[in-house]
Amino acid sequence: MSGMDSSEQRRKRKRMLRSYSQAKHYLSLRRPLILCFSFFIFLLLLSSERFRPASFRPVLTASTTTLSLLSSTASNSILESFTNRNSNTRDSSSLRVQDRILFPDHVLLIVPNRFRQNDQLECVYHRLSNGSDELLQDGEKNAHLDFAIRPVLSTDVYDELRSIARCPLPSNNYSEAVDLRRRGGGYDWTAGINGTAYPWDRVVYEAVIDGDTAVVFVKGLNLRPHRKSDPTRLTCHFGLGNNGNWEKDQGFVLTTEAVTAAQEVVRCLLPRTIRNNPDKIHGVRVTIGYNTGSARAPVHVTLPSVATIYSSKSTVRNENQKKKKHELCACTMLWNQAPALKEWVMYHAWLGVERWFIYDNNSDDGIEDVVQELELQAYNVSRQSWPWIKTQEAGFSRCALRARDECHWVGFFDVDEFFYFPRAFRHHRGDGVPGENSLRNLVSNYSYSPTIGEIRTDCHSFGPSGLSSHPSQGVTVGYTCRLQSPERHKSIVRADLLDVTLLNVVHHFRLRQGFRHLNVPENVAVINHYKYQVWETFRAKFFRRVATYVVDWQEDQNQGSKDRAPGLGTEAIEPPNWRLRFCEVWDTGLKDYVLGYFADPATGSLPWEKSLL
Hints:
This protein is an alpha+beta fold and 613 residues long.
């Protein structure tokens, strides 16, 4: 009996050993998977806000939905959701208002598609209930009384996909959430119930991809002017929503660090998903966040945003890089200066400018027709609608980015400023017209300089020169009396040598470390600045100044500043003897040159006086 027991015990031990060996073998095969899973859980805990130390600042954080980014397939699916969401809003028959911005004199509406050529649009205003901020809810009962209709002020193409419309400000007891409809068409009165109009001075208004970063343009941070700011207190957020509360609305948000900040320009790292798939990005919204409140109990705030980024167009950029760059381009921002544009472009084309970038700050004087006419005459001019007021410095930063792939040098000066070369114009050798390509030749001498990144030219300010009406042949011929001493300067910069912040003070940019500016002697070149023109033209300056940090004429500040007219008050009232002011030196140099070499010998007319349209 004992022998049988011992035999049974031996069989049990063998079975146990065999089961243990099998389990050991099974665990040895599964050990790598267990280790990988444990490491994945560790990364998940590390990325969680609950377990993250205060000093830890990751490049990319996201809510749990973003864990799918660990897979390239999942990453592509998220990008496809970006694309599909925006492509679904491009129905040409739709007039869905995507965003609204409340300006001092109008409401700007952004629509996620192009308007039809013959669209006749109307602004729709929803009536408030008893003057409160709540819209009436009895629309089905009194639909004909719950909204008002007014014609749009203007429409325009904004970017690759979006259009804009400007509407009059709403009357009392009407909501700022203005909508659009086609004239005579139907309208769903509930469309504007949840609409919001953002204030123009507290909003993220533009963004563009630049390499592995997004350059974001924002109002409301109140960063100190004319200097760099600390970017570490700022965060950048990327999402799909139509407002700042994306995480609640969409279930995920991508957050990255701000790497630079200056004035209204913040440079953000792109999330890895976007960096790896830039050509699939269409309409991803970007905003900026910051902490407010006490240090012990900070509150994170994200600004409202209408800024979206699109595909970086790597194919187009590569094609541009293969083309020979223009040696010299010009960028300007203007408002209602269409009559001056032809003279400015045609004259500077003779001096060697090859490409013009016009940033149009809400003009309504037919500038589109002037640009079309210049294009018909083979001038390479493009107009960009720039509806953001008091943003000249930011607009120039945006233009510098745009011009970098096309131009070696970019000049930033206004349409009432004309380069003049005293020596080249007066001392001519050989046949032909003197001064041809003088400006391009000047900058090209420094195109390969190891130290020069900017060329500065002094400005002479001209007055009304005794005139009471605008000179018919243009400013270069009409205004001939100026102040003795130069005022300020304007710059031409190497677009690839600008500081990463894109910091500028209108007249000049901050350069990359190791590069400096060059001052041009007055006997070589100056700028005739036709600053104080006849009162009919000059009084338009009282409407609004385009520069961010220059006080508007109506404001009783900085009365002694060179940005203001000496002795001029805050009201658009013509001072006594305006036509005789700002006249210390009679200077007919540029007038003589223009009439001598540009005028038609038979008629005496100048090229910019003719019209093809």
